[in-house]
């Protein structure tokens, strides 16, 4: 007879196994840094200021680049901005790629052009990402879905109302016809 035993594997066990596997692969030389420079991906977004501040905050996030050395700066109407800028250090992703985040506090002004400028060894020229103050795509999608639901609801309500009213009219006509028919038959009996 054989016995079957079910052993519970916890997340800590899996994490530990992954760690030792990766350590073994690294020591064996299987995991090596990329041989080429990897171009960064840039995302520029506005975040709500915390603590009730009145100034706005832009965040320029730069992801998945290699090697580590990178320069992230800001321009306002073509002029480099150095005040009200804070940046993280280059953060390792654990897969030889890096990321960095730069924050710019600013007071929005009409017609102002703000850009995040990224300089990296993988780029022939600086990568300039302009801030577009229009509504983000995710917000536009939420509004479009909400408006579509509202319109569909109104159409269904109108269709139900029309059905109810026409049903009532047909019932009324049917009652009148039946009453006339009954009354006509009753007149012949007298």
Can you walk through the features of this model?
It is a single chain. With 190 residues, the chain is an alpha+beta fold. The protein folds into two domains: 41-133, Immunoglobulins (Immunoglobulin-like, Sandwich); 135-190. The protein has two helices and nine strands. The chain has helices spanning 11-27, 137-189; strands at 41-47, 56-65, 70-76, 79-81, 85-87, 91-92, 98-106, 114-120, 127-130. The strands form two sheets. Strands 1, 2, 5, 6 and 7 form a five-stranded antiparallel beta sheet that branches. A four-stranded antiparallel beta sheet has the order 4-3-8-9, with no helix packed on it. Strand 6 (91-92) and strand 7 form a beta hairpin. The longest helix has 53 residues, at 137-189. The N and C termini lie far apart (99 Å). Residues 1-28 form the signal peptide. Pfam families: C1-set.
Descriptors for this entry?
Ig_C1-set; 2 domains; alpha+beta; Immunoglobulin-like; 2 helices
CATH structural architecture of the largest domain: Sandwich
CA(first)-CA(last) distance: 99 Å
Q: Which CATH class of the largest domain applies here?
A: Mainly Beta
Give the helices and strands as they follow along the chain: HEEEEEEEEEH
Beta-strand content estimate: 25-35%
Helix tally? 2
Total number of distinct structural domains: 2
- Indicate the low-confidence ranges by residue numbers: none
**CATH topology description of the largest domain:** Immunoglobulin-like
What proportion of the residues is helical, as a percent range?
25-40%
The name of the CATH superfamily of the largest domain reads: Immunoglobulins
């Amino acid at each position: 007879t054989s016995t079957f035993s079910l052993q519970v594997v916890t997340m800590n066990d899996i994490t530990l196994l992954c760690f030792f596997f990766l350590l073994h692969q690294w020591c064996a030389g299987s995991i090596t840094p990329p041989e080429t420079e990897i171009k960064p991906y840039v995302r520029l977004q506005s975040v709500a200021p915390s603590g009730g501040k009145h100034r706005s905050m832009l965040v320029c996030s730069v992801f998945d680049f290699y090697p580590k050395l990178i320069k992230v700066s800001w321009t306002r109407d073509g002029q480099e901005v150095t005040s009200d800028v804070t940046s993280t250090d280059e953060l390792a992703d654990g897969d030889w790629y890096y990321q960095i985040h730069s924050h710019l506090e600013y007071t929005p002004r009409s017609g102002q052009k703000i850009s995040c400028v990224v300089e990296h060894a993988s780029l022939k020229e600086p990568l300039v990402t302009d801030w577009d103050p229009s509504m983000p795509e995710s917000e536009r999608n939420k509004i479009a879905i909400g408006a579509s639901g509202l319109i569909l609801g109104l159409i269904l309500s109108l269709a139900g109302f029309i059905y109810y009213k026409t049903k009532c009219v047909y019932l009324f006509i049917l009652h009148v016809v039946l009453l006339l028919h009954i009354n006509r038959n009753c007149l012949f009996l007298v």
